[in-house]
Design goal:
- The protein has one domain: Glutaredoxin (3-Layer(aba) Sandwich), CATH 3.40.30.10.
- Strands 2-1-3-4 form a 4-stranded mixed beta sheet, with helices on both faces.
- The chain is α+β, with helices and mostly antiparallel strands.
- The protein is globular.
- It has 4 helices and 4 strands.
- The model has no long low-confidence stretch (mean pLDDT 97).
């Protein structure tokens, strides 16, 4: 299974939905980086993704985007191949 990293905050419904979708697709471990607890991580997230909103999801260092991007990737059939590399 691919490594999944998600930049998130404590209270974020899109983060919850992203985690739910990933778990539904068989992901058992998600490395969650809480940018609300560590402002330095917020700067790192912005530098890696060129975005300031959460969640920002990476699968094996490939930037997927936010929840809407993840859901679209799943709908188009592209998520499972990335997860099962």
């Amino acid at each position: 299974m691919a490594k999944v990293v998600m930049y998130c905050t404590a209270v974020c419904p899109y983060c919850v939905n992203a985690e739910r979708l990933l778990k539904h697709r068989g992901v058992t471990e998600i490395e969650k980086i809480r940018i609300d607890l560590d402002p330095e991580q917020s700067a790192i997230m912005t530098a890696r993704s060129n975005r300031r909103t959460v969640p920002q999801i990476f699968i094996d260092d490939r930037h997927i985007g936010g929840f809407d991007d993840l859901a679209e990737l799943d709908h188009d059939g592209g998520l499972l191949p990335l997860l099962n590399n």
